[in-house]
Amino acid sequence: MTAINVYKQRPDAGRAESPLFHAGLDELARKGKSRAGVTLREKKLLGHLTLRGDAKDPAFAGGVHQALGLELPVALTLVANGETSLQWLAPDEWLLIVPSGEEFATEQKLRAALEGLFFAVVNVSGGQTVLELSGAKAREVLMKSSSYDVHPSNFPVGKAVGTVFAKSQLVIRHTAEDTWELLVRRSFSDYVWLWLQDASAEYGLAIKA
């Protein structure tokens, strides 16, 4: 089997900037409304890894559980353990999100646990970000933004769906009763941020650092 070199992509020195760094969300958080219907937070600089393999192979599923402590999620769902989550993307593909700075060690754990199997792990941390929407009016903002039915009967907590959002595409993840996450490509982040400001205007928007 060909040896694979795994490189640490996040440097130990230097300042990393999230896709919305230039929007000044930290500064806006100090000026936000206290009674807004929608609260937005960029969960910035998390580790994002795509994982591919055969979900029907007990050795693969067992190796993932050994490395992450998580079972492979079924279609259109995600599972989580603390700040680590694993989301189904396709029958043989998942998205793993881990706390900032843990992606390199996590990739090494996965490769060790899955050694000898057919699989792929790719670090995609630099290409996307997560925006968290919470509050009593968060679902109303989603209803304005996407044609996908986000009613609780169709979109319970734990569901995750890739869909059209405004005139772009992203993944909507329902993580708690009044909390949703938007998985946004870096190239769409400015557009989605501007859209959310407009869509939230009638409810009041607060920014959380």
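Above is the first protein from milestone M3; the second protein from the same milestone is given next.
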Amino acid sequence: MNVVLRVIINAAALWVAAWLVPGITIGPRDAVNPEWNTAAEIATYLFVGLVFGVVNVLLRWILHLLAMPITCLTLGLFALVVNAALLMLTSAIANLFPVDFHVDAFFWDAILGSLIISIVSAILNRVLVRR
């Protein structure tokens, strides 16, 4: 149940980031019926939230460990760059499947998106997840 809640939190954070940052687009890729419907949109957000969660679980601690000296020198700001790289990797992996998740530019879109996703995830984890 905890995994499902984390996927929902990731999906909600991605929705907020896609809503606020114009360079982040997300939606179902359907050539036959290009119109959006609610079920396909929700399924797309949940799938990208799952991919984002798997990428974070598998790679986040390794990248943060490797970037620890730079992160210490920048007083933690380099962690945003690592999170933006994970967001770009999620975009590349998700586009292998029939969903359209795209982050336009690394510098502003991915960094701002990773900052928004981190804030929204922290707030939702604090409110929804019980320890």
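Note on the second protein: The longest helix spans residues 38-66.
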